Each structure stands twice: as structure tokens, then as C-alpha cells.
Amino acid sequence: MDTLCLPVTVDSLKMAAELLQQGQVVAFPTETVYGLGAHALDGAAVQKIFDAKERPADNPLIVHVAEPAQLTGICRVNEMARKLMDAYWPGPLTMLLPKEDNVPDITTAGLPSVGVRCPRHPDALALLRACNLPIAAPSANRSGRPSPTSAAHVYEDMQGRIPLILDGGSSDVGVESTVLDLTGEIPCVLRPGAITPEMIAAIAGDCTVAGSVMRPLREGEHAPSPGMKHRHYAPKAKMTVFVGEDEKVIAEIISRYDANENACILAHTQLMGAFGGRRVISLGATPEETAHLLFQRLREMDEAGCQLILAQGWEEKGVALAVMNRMARAAAFDIVRV
What we know:
With 338 residues, the chain is of the alpha/beta class. Helix content is 31%, strand content 19%. It has 10 helices and 16 strands. The strands form 2 sheets. It has an 11-stranded mixed β-sheet with strand order 1-8-2-3-7-4-6-5-9-10-11, with helices on both faces. A 5-stranded parallel β-sheet has the order 14-13-15-12-16, with helices on both faces. Strand 10, helix 7 (197-204) and strand 11 form a beta-alpha-beta unit. Helix 1 crosses helix 5 (122-131) and helix 9 (287-303) runs parallel beside helix 10. It is globular, with a radius of gyration of 20 Å. It starts with a strand and ends with a strand. 50% of the residues are buried. The mean pLDDT is 94.
């Protein structure tokens, strides 16, 4: 299969919409990461997402819509969900709600709930309106790889696997959407993102965070959200994340770097000069900048053939919780707290 990578234009949007209507898959930009989309209510089309990504069948997908009115027949929307939609849609917030019967089990991995979101990216919204379909879309990478934040990343993973990539430039946020479970009494964050627990609590009055956000799922523990159960976001190199006082983190990273011939340091911008002549690359000066850069940097480490990544983390609050969730999973939870 030849894979086209086209800038977003009236013509390329029309082509993408027609492919989706024909049961094909298309990669497209969102404000979080690039998505790999298919008609959410067409089980055969959704299967093509799993095939292209080599994604485990027990990993649910998120259904994207252009506006809340499109949720009719997809899920049952409660009052709390409507309040959060008013506050944060379009935007990087996915809400888990009871699904309707015409949503195929493959889309939700057989779960009784479905994740829904309205993306903020103008190209994503234009595509949703052009095809007039709810689109199931995980990140447009091979399963387990760092998520794609540019069309080039998608092409690297999906060349020959899908017919079309829409190139809308670099993703703004850089990490996937917040996934919020609204099927219980209190909203619970299953996957952190740019919409933080504090922001949700400001609307909902309360918000909890699942314990599995910063640890692997236990044996037998189910995964109602993407990004919880399987190996995710991982570079080819072994990765370790360091959290603590700057001086201690620097000393620990240097000691491990000097013991490995092919290591690379990912550090906060303000500490770039603290590692002598060692190979060090910026992860940004704030958690928001790290979110934007993280997956790009992990792919750069793969291209450089790096064997060991020594990464400086952040205190787990606000957007930094989302950053640390992705870094922890990329590092197989190898986190050193000093």
C-alpha cells in the first residue's frame, strides 16, 4: 500500500472524508498527538486501526466527534459530563460514559463504557465535519512506540500500512488527552493530560486520580482507558527517570552516564550546563514544554542509536502529572527518587 502524506487542504480533507466513509483509516492531527481514525460504528473499519498499529484488542479506543450533539446513539451523557463539555470542549478531555448498543465491542474492547472527546485542533474538527462520522482514533503510532506529534513521526511508523496522512504541523500539547471516568459518583482521572485534576475539580467539585496512573496495573486489574495496561510510549533504549532535588538528580545522572558509553541525558533547560561535556538535550523549562517535547525527544534518541536515556522528571502535580505518567511508562516505571 502506498501511503500519501498531504498538507491539509480542501481537496485532502475531501479525500480523507471519502476514505473514512469507505471504511478506510486515515491519520490526522489533533492538539494532543496525531490520531489514526476510522468510522467508530463500523467494526470492520475499526479492526483496520488495530491491524495497522498491531494494537492489542483489549485496549479501548476514543471516539472523536465534532460537537456534543453527535454523541446521540454513542453514549449516555449525564449532567456532570455536560458541565465539563461546556468548560473544556473542544479540548484535550476524554470522558468515559456508558455506551449505547450500536457502538461495536471492538471500539470499547468489550467494556460497557466508551471514551468520547471533541478535539480542539481546527484540522481535526474540519475532518470530522467533512466526513460527518464519529471517528475512533488512538495515537497514530505502532503499538508501544512513542506517540507521534508530527506527520513525519506517523509516516515513520505507518508507511505502507495506511492510505493517507493529513499533515497539520506539530501537535500543540504533545501528550494524549486526559481520560476522565464519569461512570461513578466522583470523577476519576484514569490517564492524566493537559486538563488537570485541579481543573476538573473546579467544575465538578471533586476529582480523584486512579492509583494506576503512576504504577503498572496489577494482575487481573482491568484497563478501562487507553494507556493503562500495555507497554506505551517506549523508546528502543533503556530509560530511567530521576526525580528530586536538582543537585542530587544531577549527581545521580552523571554517575550513571559515566558508566555507559552510549548514554544521553534529557534535562530541564535551566540545568543544561550542569553536566559538563556530556551529551544532554533539553526537555524544556516547564512541564508544559516537556509535554510538548517528550515524544519528539524519545524518537530522536532512537534515531541517534542511544542505548541509555537518563531523564529528569518533575514533581507530580498539574500538567507534570501527565508528563510523569508518560515518562514512567516509557521507562517501564524505572524511577529513581533522590
